[in-house]
Write a structure and sequence with these properties.
Layout lengths: L5 E5 L4 H12 L3 E8 L6 H12 L4 E6 L35 H16 L3 E3 L15 H14 L1 H4 L5 E3 L7 H10 L24 H13 L9
Parallel strand pairs: 1-2, 1-4, 2-3, 4-5
Length: about 230
């Protein structure tokens, strides 16, 4: 059994979560990767998460089925068109926002952390190059840490559950550069919200465009496009 501390890593299979997982590993943690199949239309990212977890040497990789499409309310989980080529600087929250998704995900990560004795959770949220989701803000992360102190047996006993959001203040280009420095294989990752039947990215949704912007500004090619 490893003597290294454990961290729960929310792993979607995208660029950001893969980078956050690599940072957790470089911080000295054994990775306990958690992937949520939440009824998203871009389920190819789950296959990407499996590949990333293997590549990063995750101690365990758990996939949970939590079908948020039963609620709908998002272009990722309902019969709503994914917006394409929209102004990324436009005000308002886009239709790709999934109601309470990160709250649900962090709650599940918190439960697993308590079960395995982990005191650290890593999540790849970002507040600079992102689509304006309210649950990607630093205020949300701090509020969830406070909740964890009240909501768990470990918290009541005095243990601190730390929510790490190492990408929070980074641009996509900075994220790409950090991942490359940590030898993340971005060819394994998937970011598109609306891939075709073969899993190829659309190139026009917010996630595709932000990813392309990151690689362009970092001055490197996206290896996923060369597969």
């Amino acid at each position: 059994m490893s003597a290294r501390p454990r961290a729960i890593v929310l792993l979607s299979g995208g660029l950001d979560s893969a980078t956050a997982a690599a940072i957790a590993r470089s911080d000295g943690f054994d990775l306990f990767a958690l992937t949520i199949a939440y009824g998203q239309r871009h389920r190819v990212e789950i296959e990407a998460a499996r590949a990333v977890a293997r590549a990063l040497g995750a101690e365990r990789h758990v996939e949970l089925q939590v079908d948020l499409s039963a609620f709908g309310g998002s272009a990722l989980t309902d019969r709503i068109d994914v917006p394409k080529d929209r102004d990324l600087e436009a005000a308002g929250i886009p239709s790709t926002y999934v109601p309470a998704r990160n709250t649900v995900f962090l709650s599940l990560a918190m439960a697993w952390a308590e079960a395995v004795g982990a005191q650290d959770i890593y999540i790849g949220v970002n507040a600079l190059d992102y689509s304006g989701y309210p649950d990607c803000r630093p205020e949300f992360i701090l509020a969830f840490e406070r909740l964890a102190a009240l909501a768990t047996k470990a918290g009541v006993a005095g243990a601190t559950l730390r929510i790490h959001a190492p990408l929070m203040r980074m641009t996509k280009a900075e994220i790409v550069r950090r991942g490359i420095a940590l030898h993340v294989d971005y060819a394994l990752t998937h970011s598109c919200y609306d891939p075709d039947a073969a899993g190829a990215p659309c190139g026009h949704c917010d996630s595709c465009r932000l990813r392309a912007k990151g690689f362009a500004e970092a001055g490197v090619g996206d290896p996923a496009l060369r597969r």
